[in-house]
């Protein structure tokens, strides 16, 4: 059914549940379309003026339409309460451990994406809002030793594809914020979307399942060059390739992708 609907390539563990919800909604829309179209054809025949030369001022005397509308509302409620909300709750409540995850900070701005990785010590350097400048996008405290080996990139997000002993892929935790206006971090292939809001750092997570290069989009109109936000890319690669890429980046200063 996913191929029939022409859904994009899927590269995350939870993405299939998102696709399933989309498919369920489409099935409901198909049933409603066929049902209401059939009802429309029936009314054209049943209430044609040749069959009803005299107007009936009392109208419909049964409650069939009420029952149908109630059934539709019930199905929609099942999709919301039985599928969508539990799926969202699992994603929020079962947040992976930071020690077992790849961690990346993201700061959106007009009109690009800034990414930051902890250095070899595995810790992000201390940050202060008043230290944010054009050259210090994340507000990193230059006096903090933990921040001197951190790596920053522009429009280039890399994560490793690693399967653990339990058979699960290594999760990625992304902390999202914005420098200026509201943006929205969206990777279609991973079926993830999260608003980037100034003054807030919002965490989200996913498990990549397939190596590849995937476009990062902004799902919130953020200015006259909004389309430029699609210039960012996520690269899912092996642990060895990820380590080599990270080692090639100069700590401290942000570097754009090549």
Describe this structure in words.
This protein is of the alpha/beta class and 258 residues long. Strand 1 (102-109) and strand 2 form a beta hairpin. The protein starts with a helix and ends with a strand. It has a 6-stranded mixed beta sheet, with no helix packed on it. It contains 4 helices and 11 strands; from the N terminus they run αααββββββββββαβ. Helix 2 (15-46) runs antiparallel to helix 3. It has 2 domains: 2-93, Helix Hairpins (Orthogonal Bundle), CATH 1.10.287; 98-256, Cupredoxins -  blue copper proteins (Immunoglobulin-like, Sandwich). Helices cover 29% and strands 24% of the residues.
H/E series, N to C? HHHEEEEEEEEEEHE
What's the main sheet like? 6 strands, mixed
Into how many domains do the coordinates divide? 2
Q: In oligomeric terms, what are we looking at?
A: single chain
Q: Label the CATH architecture of the largest domain.
A: Sandwich
CATH class call of the largest domain = Mainly Beta
Strand fraction equals 15-25%
Count of helical stretches: 4
- Strands side by side in the biggest sheet: 8-5-1-2-3-11
Mean pLDDT: 86
Radius of gyration: 25 Å
CA distance, first residue to last residue: 37 Å
Pairing-aware structural class of the strands and helices?
A: alpha/beta
CATH superfamily of the largest domain: Cupredoxins -  blue copper proteins
Find the count of extended strands (DSSP E, 2+ residues): 11
Low-confidence regions: none
**C-alpha geometry:** elongated
Query: Percentage of helical residues?
Result: 25-40%
């Amino acid at each position: 059914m996913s191929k029939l609907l022409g859904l994009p390539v899927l590269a995350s563990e939870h993405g299939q549940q998102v696709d399933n919800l989309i498919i369920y909604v489409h099935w409901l829309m198909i049933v409603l379309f066929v049902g209401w179209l059939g009802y429309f054809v029936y009314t054209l025949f049943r209430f044609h003026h040749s069959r009803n030369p005299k107007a009936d001022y009392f109208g419909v005397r049964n409650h069939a339409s009420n029952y149908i509308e109630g059934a539709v509302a019930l199905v929609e409620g099942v999709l919301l309460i039985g599928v969508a909300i539990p799926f969202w709750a699992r994603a929020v409540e079962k947040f992976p451990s930071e020690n077992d995850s790849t961690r990346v900070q993201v700061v959106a701005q007009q009109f690009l994406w800034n990414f930051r990785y902890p250095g070899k010590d595995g810790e992000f350097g201390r940050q202060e809002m008043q230290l944010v400048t054009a050259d210090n996008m994340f507000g990193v405290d230059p006096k903090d030793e933990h921040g001197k080996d951190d790596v920053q990139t522009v429009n280039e997000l890399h994560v490793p594809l690693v399967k653990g002993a339990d058979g699960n892929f290594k999760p990625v935790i992304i902390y999202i914020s914005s420098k200026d206006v509201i943006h929205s971090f969206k990777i279609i292939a991973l079926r993830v979307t999260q608003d980037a809001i100034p003054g807030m750092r919002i965490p989200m997570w996913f498990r990549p399942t397939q190596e590849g290069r995937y476009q990062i989009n902004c799902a919130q109109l953020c200015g006259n060059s909004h389309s430029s936000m699609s210039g960012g890319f996520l690269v899912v690669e092996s642990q060895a390739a990820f380590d080599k890429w990270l080692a090639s980046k100069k700590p401290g200063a942000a570097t754009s992708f090549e």
